[in-house]
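input
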Amino acid sequence: MKKYIITLLIVLAFFTNPSSSKAAEVRWDGAQVVTGQTGKMTFTKDVKVYKKNANGTYSSMTVKRNNYFRVYDIEKYDNKTFYWMSSGYRVQATDLVVFKKVPLNIRASLYDNPAYININRQGYSYGQHYRLDSALYNKISIGENLYYSYYDADGGSIEVNIDGSDIRIFETTKRDKGLYMLTADAQVSGGPMNGAGGIGRTKGTALHSLGLEINGYLWTNEGYIPVTLIQPVKKQGKRYIRYGVNAAAIKGNPKELKRFDEVILLTDNDTAAWIEVDGEEYSVPKKVLATIRPNESPIITTSFLPNDTIQQLVYQNYGTPIVYKKTTNNHFVAPALKYIDYSETEKNFTYNMDGFKYIFEKPVTEGSKVTRTGHGWNDEGFVRAIHYTITTPAGTFNNVVETSLNEFYAPGYGFISDDFGNKLTSYE
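output
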């Protein structure tokens, strides 16, 4: 009786606790498929295969004709294909090898949250992560192969089929979506694979997690980074804004910060710092932060007008030099009907360059009004910052005015740069 009760409990446990998809046995083409398997192969005759050991030596074994072996990884480069067997043996595709890929959907059934990564090194897509919920694709589906379509610039549908043997599957793990920092200089890769290419980032750089870990890589706003090279950021205390700055948001919209604003430092590298303001995260140039409250903002009391000795202003416009020569007081001309005019009243300072007119409300100080008109533009901005010194290719200037319209002006010299590619490179 006791034996019967134990047997009954085992049967009940089997029906009330079904196995997960990963634990279930999956069979295909007469054999069991295991997690990580890409395909299977046989040989048309007895051959010797090799593997490289950790100490640099090689081991070999002879495999028999028609024996079945699982393939766990595939390398494709230089128009060659290599199949990786278990225990580290690698075989190049030849007419002696008969390979059969396991359909992609069969392989995916062994994972709870499969991630599909391109492993073909013969194109530009190596390391690409294909997400089934990505807005980049008009349609994406998993069958024997991976299929997706997207719209081109003209609205036409482009269809792409990726061979299933070019895809490696990894389990996806959920991670916290918070801010992480690099613990060493590292490459932020374009995909969760070693060698996927990417951009270099220095120690201390902050990366915002998108909440997924794949193949030991954390997916971030800039790309993929090994989880061994990151750690959550920790607040490092109060800092003060040294001068007005437009802070780039980690998520959402940028934020204008003023001199004296108090922020929380999260992390920094050689050039940038990541801060917290009202619970949101931003990045700013590292030099904009001070550990103690900065001095009062300067007020421009001298004229913006170029001093009387300046006879020529040379600007670079996207690499093309433009020479403006003085013709009368505060008026400069250049070829192709280009010109610069400066004027000043008790209430305003006005700068006019090639049809763009900028009016500064006086006194010129951080926060004072700036307007821009011309060529269909009608913008209202303000003085973002007054820098004690700024060095440019044309020299070092004092009390440089930066506007929220992204121009820089130096008293006694006038306009020195903007975000349209115009830069003062020299003067005489």
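quick obs: Residues 122 and 355 are 52 Å apart (CA to CA).
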